[in-house]
Amino acid sequence: GKPVYFRYEGRDYAVRLTDVMLFPQGYAAVLTQTELLDEPSVIVADIGGWTVDLMRLDNRIPNAATCRSLELGMIRCLDEIAEQVRRSLNLSLTGAQIENVLRGSPDSMDDRVKAIIQREAGIYARRILSAIAEAGLDCRAMPVVFLGGGAGLMKRYLPQGGVLRPVILDDDKLNAQAYERLASQVAGHAG
User: Which candidate, 58, 53, 29, 31, places its Cα nearest to that of 42?
Assistant: First the structure.
């Protein structure tokens, strides 16, 4: 209940926190997918820059025992692709160039380079599925929601038959918007 005082960029602030709500990463975005609300179990895989954060929802409730954070984020994927291109063709690509190819955007890149990028992206997608399985979550037994910066990659490079029902949420604003709605709903029920 006491205010916290601090100075930022030459201005003094006093902030009093009256309420804090904490939800697992990706939870609110999944709740926006009405077709998943009746599923008994759903895997959530939030593919960020440094990590892939995993969680299973059972009857829409996060199962804390299934939460894992794997060091398999998109930065690692881009670094590995760049290394393979360097080894194979002695070329140094930027992350922006690689991401452009991964999105399927038009560019002037040599087809040999694109083939390496696409092959390595497929390997990365399979590695994520393997890591999810090693974490004790079976992608072939329940739907998987992919979100975060790497969700678009999974849309294009997910191996056939590797996931029972993939749901790709590649809108980078969806999670924040959904948390705002969820917090409003919880605050409305509480007060």
Answer: 58
